[in-house]
Amino acid sequence: MKILGNIIWLLLGGIVIALIYYIVGLVMCVTISGIPFGVQLFKLGTYALWPFGHELVFRPTEPGCLSTVMNLIWILLGWWEIAILHLVFGLLFCITIIGIPWGVQHIKMAFNSLFPFGKEIR
């Protein structure tokens, strides 16, 4: 069931979301100060490819001071817009009964894209 959900996710725009994350991540990695943000975008892009059966969770030693500060900088730089976009798509998918699983994935991605530092994909 997870494989079918992921395939439908890719067909409904998951691959576009992942490509956008990867492209913006590459652009962010052009500067030294942008590398940590680019790495987080690569992580979100990988999660956007196969969200069913995976989750972003805090590492055993997190959240620490550095990840908390980086999450605050992430929000202050305007990356909260990604979370709002995922939340809107999640609510749109949840309007129909059939779209609820994909809406739930978007809502999970909204929270994870708001605080990506200190997390890993499991």
Describe it.
By secondary structure, the chain is mainly alpha-helical. It has one domain (2-121). The protein is built from 4 helices and 2 strands. Strands 1-2 form a two-stranded antiparallel sheet. The two termini are 18 Å apart. The mean pLDDT is 91.
SSE arrangement:
Layout: H1 2-28, H2 35-49, E1 56-58, H3 65-93, H4 100-114, E2 119-121
Antiparallel strand pairs: 1-2
Sequence stretches where pLDDT stays below 50 over 5 or more residues: none
What's the main sheet like? Answer: 2 strands, antiparallel
Distance between the termini: 18 Å
Rg from Cα: 14 Å
Question: What is the compact description of this entry?
Answer:
The protein has 122 residues and is mainly α. It has helices spanning 2-28, 35-49, 65-93, 100-114, and strands at 56-58, 119-121. The longest helix has 29 residues, at 65-93.
Index terms:
122 residues, mainly alpha, 2 strands, globular
